[in-house]
Amino acid sequence: MKINLALAPEAAIIIAATLEAVYNTKAFTRRNKAVLSIALDVAAKLDAKAVLAKGKRTQFDAKKKIKVSLKFHEADMLELLLIQQVKDVQEPYIRQQIQKTIDDLNQKLA
Predict the structure, then answer these.
(1) Which positions ≥6 away from 98 have C-beta within 8 Å?
(2) How far apart are CA 99 and CA 110, in angstroms?
(3) 72-86 and 9-18 helices cross at what angle (nearest 10)?
(4) pLDDT tens digits, 60-97
(5) What does the angle CA 81 – CA 12 – CA 44 come to, to the nearest 5 degrees?
(6) Is the pTM of this model over 0.90?
(7) Rounded CA gap, 60 and 49, in Å?
């Protein structure tokens, strides 16, 4: 089952930057390695979309949404990662963008 997520270019960059902490995570147990594998796949996919978003800095492309297609387990992992990371964010605008993405994911996963 696929979950399609439409992100503004700015939101894609914010989400990708938020997920950078995943790359520094170490897994020791078999379960943790499986979860980390999914998290790394999601982070890599969103990093690729963030690179596209950085290219869309013109006035005409700034409002176009970037479409991200995730499998159900990837979308669930993204939601869990964002919920975990939003607690540490101090900047209100960044926190709002992350929360908006969490809300969209929650609605599509329900």
Answers:
(1) 14, 15, 18, 82, 85, 86, 89
(2) 16
(3) 70
(4) 666 788 899 999 999 999 999 999 999 989 999 999 99
(5) 60
(6) no
(7) 18
